[in-house]
Amino acid sequence: MTILIVEDNPTNAMIIKHLAKKVTHEDMVVAPDGTAALALCHAEAFSMLIVDHLLPGMSGLQFIKAVRLMDRYREVPAVMVTAETDPRLREEARAAGVTDFLHKPVEAMAFRKLIADHLGAAAIVPDLPKSA
């Protein structure tokens, strides 16, 4: 399967992609805005959506609302990436269909855990230290 990253900042997209590759072997596709991402969602089935809150044109929330109207995306995990701390955004995002949140700057361990939690068997499980 494939993860869709919707991020207009190429550096942020690269960081998210790099962190995700440490947790999963799934392919990743980056879309620079919600309109392009929506077109990709009509053409392909993604296993997870990682969406920036502030995007040019269509916001991350508008994208999530639109993609949730598609049957194949009703249950797909959708993670919103944002620096916003306003609790009203969380409420609105949850109502729109956001599954979880990542806060900017993205912290590597929290990101890896979130991806592993949502991907389940598709996640890479690190070797656990052996007890003596």
What does this structure look like?
- By secondary structure, the chain is of the alpha/beta class.
- It has a single domain (2-120), classed as Response regulator (Rossmann fold).
- Helices cover 39% and strands 18% of the residues.
- The protein contains 5 helices and 5 strands, in the order βαβαβαβαβα.
- The protein has helices at 10-21, 34-43, 60-67, 87-96, 108-119, and strands at 2-6, 27-31, 48-52, 78-82, 100-103.
- A 5-stranded parallel sheet has the order 2-1-3-4-5, sandwiched between helices.
- β1, α1 (10-21) and β2 form a beta-alpha-beta unit.
- α2 (34-43) packs parallel to α3 (60-67).
- The N and C termini lie far apart (38 Å).
- Residues 125-132 have low confidence and may be disordered.
Topology:
Layout: E1 2-6, H1 10-21, E2 27-31, H2 34-43, E3 48-52, H3 60-67, E4 78-82, H4 87-96, E5 100-103, H5 108-119
Parallel strand pairs: 1-2, 1-3, 3-4, 4-5
Helix pairs in contact: 2-3
State the gist of this model.
The chain is of the alpha/beta class.
User: How many domains?
Assistant: 1
Low-confidence stretches: 125-132
The CATH class designation is: Alpha Beta
Outline? globular
Oligomer: single chain
CATH superfamily, please? Response regulator
CATH architecture: 3-Layer(aba) Sandwich
Radius of gyration: 15 Å
Beta strand % = 15-25%
Largest sheet entry? 5 strands, parallel
Q: Please, how many helices?
A: 5
Protein name: Response regulator
GO biological process, one term: phosphorelay signal transduction system
Organism: Rhizobium glycinendophyticum
Pfam family, one: Response_reg
